[in-house]
């Protein structure tokens, strides 16, 4: 059974207060739980459902609909690489190939040493400095094969 710390439960309660309806807080609450555990387990839906006093089917429906929620344990560092139009035009697909060849990292996958997981994203709002990616909470822009390699060196 997933057990949330008091601080995380307080954070969910605080998020809930920002919305007139509990359903508005489902996405941020799931994000908080995912941040805490790295992914959403079956239990996570139960926990959020109890915290927001909503049916589990509603919470699970949201969690399984959106691509930003993970359902498998992630690596220590999450790479979110944009391959939408601006990034694609400027070489994002080459970067996907690079991550596969250099790190054995497939979209949706995790390296065997659990150092990195990769998610392919739609636009992350950095089109002017494409191609771009997030590593955990850090934005990296104007990417090339070489710069990705240098950047990823910093994440152990
Ligand atoms: S298209 Fe990649 S950041 Fe917008």
Shape by Cα distribution:
elongated
Determine the structural class based on helices, strands and strand pairing.
alpha+beta
The biggest beta sheet reads: 4 strands, mixed
Say how many strands there are: 4
Query: Helix proportion of residues, in percent?
Result: 40-55%
Number of helices: 7
Residues in β-strands, percent: 5-15%
- Which regions contain 5 or more consecutive residues with pLDDT less than 50? none
Q: Give the ligands present.
A: FE2/S2 (inorganic) cluster
Average of pLDDT:
93
Write the element-wise H/E pattern from the N-terminal end onward. HHHHEHHEEEH
Radius of gyration: 17 Å
Query: In which order are the strands of the major sheet placed?
Result: 2-1-3-4
The end-to-end distance, rounded to whole angstroms, is 29 Å
């Amino acid at each position: 059974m997933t057990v949330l710390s008091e601080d995380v439960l307080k954070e969910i309660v605080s998020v809930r207060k920002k919305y007139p309806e509990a359903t508005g807080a489902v996405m941020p609450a799931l994000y908080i739980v995912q941040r805490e555990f790295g992914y959403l387990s079956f239990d996570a839906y139960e926990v959020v459902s109890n915290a927001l006093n909503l049916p589990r089917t509603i919470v699970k429906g949201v969690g399984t609909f959106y691509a930003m929620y993970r359902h498998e344990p992630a690596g220590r560092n999450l790479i979110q690489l944009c391959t939408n139009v601006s990034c694609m035009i400027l070489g994002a697909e080459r970067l996907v190939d690079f991550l596969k060849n250099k790190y054995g990292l497939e979209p949706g996958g995790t390296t065997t040493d659990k150092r990195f997981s990769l998610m392919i994203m739609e636009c992350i709002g950095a089109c002017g400095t494409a191609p771009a990616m997030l590593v955990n909470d850090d934005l990296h822009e104007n990417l090339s094969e070489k710069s990705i390699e240098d950047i990823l060196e910093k994440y152990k």
